[in-house]
Amino acid sequence: MRKALILCTLTAALGSGCTEKFVEPAPGAAGLAYYPVQVGDFRIYDVTDIRFRNNIGDTTRFQLRERVDTSFYDQTNTLNYKVVRSVRANAASAWQDDSVMVVTKSDKFVTETKDNTKRVKMVFPVKAAKTWSADAFNANTVNYEDDQKEKYSFSDVALPATVAGKTYNQTVTVIQGSPSKNLVQLDDRKEIYALHVGLVLRRFNKITYCNDSESITCPFGVDYKLNGHEREEVLHSYGKQ
Questions:
Q1: 130 Cβ partners below 8 Å, 6+ apart?
Q2: Which of 16, 135, 237, 239 maximizes the CB count within 10 A of its CB?
Q3: What residues have CB less than 8 Å from 42, skipping those under 6 apart?
Q4: If 0-12 CB within 10 Å is exposed, 13-18 middle and 19+ buried, where does residue 18 land?
Q5: Are 114 and 99 contacting, i.e. CB atoms less than 8 angstroms apart?
Q6: Quick check: 229 and 52 in contact, CB under 8 A?
Q7: Is the link from the previous residue into 27 a cis peptide, with omega within 30 of 0?
Q8: 95-132 tens-digit pLDDT
Q9: Helix (H, G, I), strand (E, B) or coil at 32
Q10: 3-class SS at 228?
């Protein structure tokens, strides 16, 4: 999209009028390159998944691959991408297809549809502290009385980030919901995207604590994890098939 800069130079001698000069925005100014998507793209993640019950964690480690399989136009003439998600125990194992999600990307936003739920993952242009409704296209709410939709927001825009020992020069963090850490709960959900790479870290940590030291259920008091789910997906490799 071009921005027009109107330059009006008036001189008494020449009586010149207005001239129009078109100035192209800086490449990537809107931030679309934080979420690249083309048929054949793939990303492989190392996943650590921990389920807690009565302060005991059940840990599973595996690899997850997201591969852009095909593209298609829907009934509204919107371009969609079919992304096949596959898992394997380790690099020596065969991939097993696990699920499918559908991605749409425009110059306004990116949506991902998984398990019949469509969420707005990113909006453009990317700007610090910008917020949006992640559940704009579904019926989910975080406050049923007020019909309140969960908010996502940008943080650390265009800053370098180091993930699993690898540094990415330009990244943006998407904060999901309202982060919290107190005696009752932990809610730490975020995604980090690197320019021209895509998602490099996905974190989902939601824990319910039991902090009653007199309770038989949680005799150890503070930070006793009554139940919860901690999951982290770190980019291992990426490319194009």
A1: 123, 153, 154
A2: 135
A3: 65, 66, 67, 68, 238, 239, 240, 241
A4: exposed
A5: yes
A6: yes
A7: no
A8: 999 999 999 999 999 999 999 999 999 999 999 999 99
A9: helix
A10: strand
